[in-house]
Sequence to fold (406 residues):
Amino acid sequence: MPGTASERIFTVNEITLLIKARLEEDFPWVTVQGEVSNFRPSSTGHWYFSLKDADAVMSLVMFRSRIDGVRFAPADGMLVKATGSISVYPRRGNYQLICETLRKAGEGDLLAALEERKRALASEGLFDVDRKKALPICPDRVVVITSPTGAAVRDILRVLRRRNAGIDVLIIPVPVQGEGADERIARAVAIANSHALGDVIIVGRGGGSLEDLLPFSSEAVVRAIAASAIPVISAVGHETDVTLSDLAADVRAPTPSAAAEMVAASREELLGRVRSARGMMQRTLDQRLERVRLLLSPFRQETLLRNVQVYLQPLVQRADDAREDLLQGLKGIVLSRRHRHELASRELASYSPLSILSRGYAVVTHERTGKVLLSAEAVRPGDGVSIRLAQGGARAVVEETHAGEK
Fold:
């Protein structure tokens, strides 16, 4: 009870610390939506401002380390969503939100829509790594699709002039934000392809808010870049900005200046590549020559003939032996055939009637019929006959015949 002896008396600091502990324990991470008020960046780089609605106001602080993730410049009257933890600043005795992330109200819905579009396009393979094309080493002409009055085109031209003065640049002017910008960008990419206007295309712009960069995440631009036969570099925003065109492009550059660096290799860099390639070729050639020398070392001039003779000697010997075997085989065959021929000739001669005639026999044929006479009955007295002797023959006339035994 107030005024009693048991009443505890708190110091201001003690009660403030109790409140601080309770708030930080109960609200470790919250998101608050409200209208920016009294926005004042400090000289140390931190942001101090308030969020208000029709009935209340609360203080916020955003430290410099978290500011780089903010895609827009806050201003009084802007409706935002701040996420962070509730804390108490004891020196002033007021609570505040330690802001970790800051985005425009409605930006979450926009991010969700972009994420859904990203998943749908990825399912079609438009972001696949294996469909990406390599950039040409020394392009003759670069097509730049961007705003003709923006800082991006000036940065690209400055880098190209510094890196390689001989490269041609063709600028296709397009709006890079606002309604209809996406259709203009997509049409420019298609025109560059249909007329083969260059060896590489840079599509880019400077940084900006999420809404400013929306054209480069549109389905039309993503499909145009994915369908491009000419390699495309997407150079949209700053290094922290990522759009769907970055995923569809063959190469993503963190800035327009970096894209220009990629397409225009400096003379020194090209010379270094040539020197490196020449050194590699020389080393490879030397290694191969040394290998050939090692392989040929056993075949020196003084030993080459001997090595060849040693190699050929068994082959020559085998050829000679085979020839002798062949000749001996042929001789054996000839002798065998000759002996068989002689035996057959002798046997044939023994069956010849001429050999019988040589023993005193004769062959008598009827002169009129030409038939060999085997019997006296085949002729009559007065018939003419021909007598064949072993040597020569005679003609005779039958005077008489005598029948004899068979």
In short: The chain has a mean pLDDT of 83.
